[in-house]
Every structure is written in C-alpha cells, then in structure tokens.
Amino acid sequence: LEVNTNEKLINLRDRIIRGEEPPIWEARDGLIFRKKRAYLDRDSSLVQDVVMGFHNFGHEGVQKTMDRIRRDFFWPGWKQTVQNFVKNCQVCQKNKWETLQPAGLMQPLTVPTKIWADISMDFVEALPKVSGKTVILVVVDRFSKYAHFIPLSHPYTAISVAQAFFQDIVRLHGIPETIVSDRDKVFRSAFWRELFRLVGTNLCFTTAYRPQSDGQTEVVNRTLEMYLRCVTGDVPRKWLSWLPWVEYCYNTSFHASLKTTPFRLVYGREPPRLLDYTAGSSTIDELDVALEERDDFLHMARERLLEAQQRMKAIYDSHHRLVEFKQGDWV
Question: What is the DSSP string of 91-131?
Fold first, then answer.
C-alpha cells in the first residue's frame, strides 16, 4: 500500500492518528479517507488507474466521469486530471461527434409532473444482426430521463412492437398517459392508434421532416449509439450482449438538467455501486422519512427541469432567427 511507502501519505497518516488534522480526515483499514472518500497522492500511479477504470466503464464525458469518481476518491487537482484524461481519450476521439445547430427556434414540450406518465419512443436501426436482432426500441420517461433499450427483430410490425412495449414497459411502469413519437408507420398504424385509444393513452406525433420536435429521444439515441460504439469497439456484433450494461450506464449517469441520475430520481436512492470502497458505511432510513424525502426530491427535480429547459431554449434561440410564413408565401 502506498500509505506505507509514500512519505507524504505517511506523514499525513501520522498527523491524523495524533489528532492534528480536522475531523474530515480518517485513517483506517490501511487507507486514508477525506470526507469518507479514499485519498490518493496527486503523483500516485493509482490516479491514472482510477480515472481509466471509471471513464472506460462507458466512455462518458467529463461531468459524468467526475460524478462517478467523486463518490469514492479524492486527490488534489482531481477535476483537472479527469478533464485532461477525457480530452485525450483515443476511443472518445474516434467515436464521438460535434453537435450541429439546425435552423428554427426551439418549442419545448410541457414538462411532465409524474414519473413514467409521459414517455417518448423511437427506433435505432441498421445494427449488425445478432441472434436475429437488428433494431433497438428506445423508450424514455420524459420526467426522469430513465430509459429502456429493447432489442427487436427486423422487419418489425405494430403487433410485435406493442408486444415488446407491454412486456418490457407496461409490466414495469404501467400504462402511460402520453406517448411522443415520430411518424413512423408503426406509430401511425390503425392497430397502434386503436390500441392506445382503448387504454386511454394520448398519442403525440412530431412534425413531419422535423424530428427535432422529439429532441429528448434523439439525444438519447445519440448517447446510446455513442455508448455502443465505445464499448464494442472493433467487435460491433457484441452490441446485444452489452446492451443491458449500456442501459445501466445511461440510467446511473449524472444528467445536468436533473442535477442527479435518472436511477435516483425513479427509485429515491443512489444507484448500487459496482465497486464499493466504503463497505459498511451506509445506513437505512425509516420508511416515512424516505418517502417524505422522495416527494421533496421530485419537486426539486421538476424545478430544475424547468430551469434547464428555459436555459437551453434561451441558448438555442440566441443562435437562430425567428422566421414566420403565411399561407401562399414562397419558401
């Protein structure tokens, strides 16, 4: 252990044991902790191993990688270390893209008020055929951003998509109040319309040739494709076996608009850690306290969604001009 060989860590450990450091410091189990996070020396060889381990989990961006690391580790200048590592990641450089700005002002959808009451749906197609699957049905809860990625075979029909939807979505979350989708022939079919008319779900379709109207699902689609490219690399036919981990990675990653993870917003707790370096430090709250905190949390999250939506619209609109047309105008 470096705490027994690194002179700076040895001196720090001795000061902690003598009580010369503030209470935020602990020395136990052969490690040094700062605010219950494992402390590393800035020049330790373990720093790069830690950053690599967390970043390579899903090749996420700087913010999401930092959110994963800050739960368990600390070293001086750790944020800059993460930024430099992600900036120079070869896998990210090869597989990620720069976002473009289509013309037109943003028209945000109404912010939902309940979890899994308002959802959006879309397809990711043309994937390598694995076990008969070449399509992913992407279903996103518009409030929590929680998503499910459901593999499908091609060609798919309204009946097969409906069966997958009821098996993987309705079984877990119930019947939604609204569904936002593009004008795919499946979503426009008589079978699909009549099915959701009978269950009381309102179908909302994006404007033709304007898929940005369903911007949330489009963003999730790009994120999903990025995850798949990063984790499969040179073996794209393994996308199906990696898909459950991609879904887990997405739902447990930090979202700037929520200021938390979709998992915590849905379940009211932090997502389980695959690598727990502080075993035995967690506590269990009383049920009534947990439910009260959950309600407060949902209310706070909605306010943050509104703030983020307004901020995004202002930034988007500042780079575009409003163009209005009347019937009969040449365009």
Answer: HHHHH-------SS---PPPPPSSTTTEEEEEEE--PPPBT
